[in-house]
Amino acid sequence: MQSRTPRYEGKDRLAGRKVRRRRSLTRPGKRPAAADFVRRDFTAEEPDLVWAGDLTEIETGEGKLYLATVIDLFSRRLLGYAMAERHDADLVVAFLNMAAATRGGDVRGVIMHTDRGSEYCSRRFRGPNKGVGRVGG
Fold it and tell me: Which residue from 93, 68, 100 is spatially nearest to 83, judged by alpha carbons?
């Protein structure tokens, strides 16, 4: 049996839409993955033991805006945030600096849980903030 699609396309001048395949943005890393100290337990016994950070994309009338936040998993209190037009290491460094300032500047020993995105794996994020333990999710 012959397909009817070509007949309808010619008669009504319809054309099928080609669906473009999205290219994956995930590339295998060169470094080993960060250890998962949290192990899906998103609670903490005391303040400043475990922090969690995430990025959110917000559509606005002027384009995309990225909001990065960090909370303390003990109190669920927002410790720091930053907004930018690009999601990059500078954005996550800014929210971590705000969180550190909120807690008096000393973040040694804090476990920082993130989703292992490129922003969190960058040298810019990892370098100056070596006092904070890195964790993926």
Answer: 68
Rg of the chain on CA atoms, in Å: 22
What DSSP line would sit under the chain, residue for residue? ---SHHHHHHHHT--PPPPPPPPP-----SSPPPP-SSTT----SSTTSEEEEEEEEEEETTEEEEEEEEEETTT--EEEEEEESS-SHHHHHHHHHHHHHHTTT--TT-EEE----HHHHSHHHHSTTTTSEEE--
The domain ranges of the chain are 36-135
Sequence-ordered list of residues with C-beta below 8 angstroms from that of 75, at least 6 positions apart, any chain? 47
> If you average pLDDT over every residue of the chain, what do you get?
73
Q: Is the pLDDT of residue 59 over 80?
A: yes
What CATH number does the domain located at 36-135 have?
3.30.420.10
The Cα–Cα gap between 134 and 112 comes to 5
pTM for the full predicted model: 0.59
